[in-house]
Design a protein that fits this description.
By secondary structure, the protein is α/β, with parallel strands linked by helices. It has eight helices and four strands.
């Protein structure tokens, strides 16, 4: 059974399932997912005083999902700081990772937001390495090929479609899809 069905199975309890063994891994996953706010993940020190309580909850949610091998969605009203929550997550992942661990990230967004992402990362986490995948086709190909396992590549939906073959050989630790309806 896929891991993402664990919460559903747990909610069923023993009533609908006659034989169901909740092993240690299953119980640990359920505990982790139910106790997001009690987790041991820490907001990066540089952002702790900046982030509001609900933003810290979003950060903890992302950390919990990642730790348990899931992707996730941050969905709330405009202007409540989803970008900051993602930046805090990316910063914490880079800070916690070993030097050889892949933490390459791809952020895909509408063209109108590409430079906003760059500016926000530089403002809140200047220690992160940002690569703007913009410009002519040859320039973009070189930027993608030259990226390291610590870079955050930012591109638009249109440029991603054009450059897809250049991305196929890269492994990304995290992919952020901003304004996913696009």
């Amino acid at each position: 059974i896929p891991k993402y069905r664990a919460m559903y199975l747990d909610a069923l309890g023993g009533n609908e399932i006659s034989s169901f063994n909740r092993d240690h891994a299953f119980r640990e996953l359920i505990r982790n997912m139910k106790s997001v706010e009690e987790s041991d993940y820490e907001v990066p020190k540089s952002l702790d005083q900046i982030m509001r309580g609900y933003q810290k909850k979003g950060f903890l949610w992302l950390k919990t999902l990642s730790h348990n091998g899931f992707g996730g969605i941050l969905a709330d009203d405009m202007g409540l700081g989803k970008t900051l929550q993602v930046i805090a997550f990316l910063l914490s992942e880079v800070q916690e990772a070993g030097k050889s661990d892949n933490r390459r990230c791809l952020i895909v967004c509408p063209a109108s937001l590409v430079y906003n992402w760059k500016n926000e990362i530089e403002r809140f986490a200047p220690e992160l390495s940002v690569v703007m995948v913009t410009g002519q086709a040859a320039e973009r190909a070189a930027l993608i090929a030259g990226s390291t396992n610590r870079d955050i590549l930012i591109t638009s939906y249109d440029l991603l479609r054009r450059d897809l073959t250049h991305y196929e050989k890269l492994l990304f630790y995290c992919e952020v899809v901003d304004e996913a309806q696009f």
